[in-house]
Amino acid sequence: MALALSYLLSFLLLVLLLPYSTIAQTSKNQSLGSSLTAQNKDTYWVSPSGDFAFGFQQIGKGGYLLAIWFNKIPEKTIVWSANGDNLVPIGSKVELTKDGQFVLSDPTGKEIWKPGLVGTGVAYAAMLDSGNFVLASQDSGFLWESFDHPTDTILPTMTMNRGSKLVAHYSERNYSNGRFHFTLKMGGNLSLETRFFPLEFSSTGYWSSETEGSGFLVVFNQSGSIYLTARNGSILKTISSNAGPSQDFYQRAVMEYDGVFTHYVYPKGGTNTSNARSWPKAWSSLFRIPPNVCTITEEIGSGACGFNSYCKLRDNQRPECLCPYGYSFIDPDDVMKGCKQNFQPQSCDEANPETDQFDLIDMPNVNWPLFDYGHFQDQTEDWCRKACLDDCFCSVVIFGGGQCWKKKNPLSNGRKDQDPSVGGKALIKIRKYNSTLQCSRPGADSKNNDRSTLIIIVSVLLSSLVFLNLLFLFGFRFKYWKPNVLQQYPAMPGMNLRSFTYEELRKATDGFKEELGSGAFATVYKGVLQSEETYLVAVKRLNNRVREGDLEFNAEVSAIGRTNHRNLVQLLGFCNEGQHRLLVYEFMSNGSLASFLFGDSQPNWYQRIQIALGTARGISYLHEECSSQIIHCDIKPQNILLDDSFTARISDFGLAKLLKLDQTRTTTGIRGTKGYVAPEWFRNMHVTVKMDVYSFGILLLELICCRKNFDVKEQEDLIILADWAYDCFKDMKLELLVANDEEAIHDMKRVEKYVMIAIWCIQEDPSLRPTMKKVVQMMEGAVEVSVPPGPSSFISSI
Question: What cellular-component terms does GO give this entry (predicted)?
């Protein structure tokens, strides 16, 4: 029995080892007839030491790359590839044929790549310990070698002759040719250049060895130095040195996809030298050129980053491509493709100039050099702002030193200067929120609340042709009535709100399965409404504290449903069936401001500015623009949601009226949350809109400082944010509030203004607080902000 078990174990071990014996094939020379096939696991030939491998690597979930890589480190870093622009599917094969040809072919036998051999008579292939893959003759002469045909990387012992180049990959995981190259020109000048992508020709040089006529050979020696020599071997320019000998470190120099030429080192395992032991077990950057790739300025082209984006240098001196306000990446997975506007550009129709529909947002130290179509000297910033707002072609105006430069799309050569002393700023033109949508007036015909009816009225005024009116109405509904999926459900008479049964919403939420959040009076679930297409919604299930009267509930829901503003979460429908009270809202993909603001990564200053302004506009709308005034009663980060473009959307507005009166005055429930509640709430004073103003003031301080209003982890004098903020303002030390925020530090004028606004909002005396309309005007710059008095007490609201 024991013998049988022994045989069985031996057999199983052999079966387990068989696949691996064919995956990592032996390091001896590969004879005629040898081949590798792309499989689920990397398949390769290794060098004698095992340091390098040649074979197939799967790239992400895509196809396979025939490549050379470092084989003894976890990263398996690729240093050469044959088919970067044409990944092959599983089952593809590279073969050294019996007649001495070396061919990569797909599973159908179609030839994908083969090297240009010098001579004939290939006898074997070999992966060498230097990282060089060779095809050799019987006398071991190299008929082809990868060192003569580099892609984006050079290794120790490699050289580059005149006319040789390294071409950057398109992106970190896309191995096709990209936008930059490192080349030793035929004239002897070593340079970094952009390319006329997707063509191979040079475009703009942004670094040069300045060795025209004398440069002859780029050498990467075994001691880790990279330098340019003259024809006689003398060193003309040292690019990188002191890396350490190759027996201690793996080394590579790469023309990176972002335009930076970088020399990397990685300590070898088992090395005993103290120098190598002190390095981390990872690729470390030893040297890079140029010092700031963001300074690329192209006469034709986009610059370091794509069109309509700008380049910012990270702390590690690598570039980061960003989009300005109002823009987003064309492809988030390919940030160098550039950015697009998230709004309809300004109309050039003189009858409808739309001047009042646009804002200019400050971006300090940001510029898009060249390609100005207007240049004005000895002007104020206000003059430049008006000049751009009045010009439908103007997308950005750069202001600095009394001068302004107008620019239009697409913007190129965008950069953020690292030195704040450079001064100047970009003023980005973006469309304001849609201010044309108003709340309904009491007693008005309910049809006036439907946007389609507005279009009918406009159409009737424009033309008496009934057909044209109907056609226009149909087109508007098709384009703008987003939740078409809701049309199958009955609507509240005269409203766009849909009436759902409890069973419909139970099915939509899969039995109330996925909880998005909960509070003292409701739980929110993710739902999917099914029709010709799926439509994500958030279903708020109110608990039994809600008043039971059908008429009162329907009336309050109707009032909430009539609101329509860019900075409010839209109510789509409701359920009022028996004891079940549910509200159906549009789904906000980026969650709450609380998660965004207090999460692991800090939102940038400009995002926080826009969220603050959007929130203020939404509250002002509830207070000022609806005849049936709505007081939110619970403004806080958890009730500010973010849509797919991170626009602030206020939720839970008007829900105070859906609760019993004796449940609206609580310090623990959803109505009136600790830290955000105005002092008068605790004194049983009459509730006014100034309560929301106080809550917004606290929220604004949180957005400025990127921290919670009450944090016991802070030092004793910093625990209460409002106290600390006022002390910093009084002592003229506002930089402490944004100490770790470079963008905010460069925008201290706005920081001071916003802190002053917040202090006005949190005055203990409600009569001293501004209205939300005035808050918006102060934030937009239409109204000056005076120096606020010191609030007499903050502690009462905690």
Answer: membrane
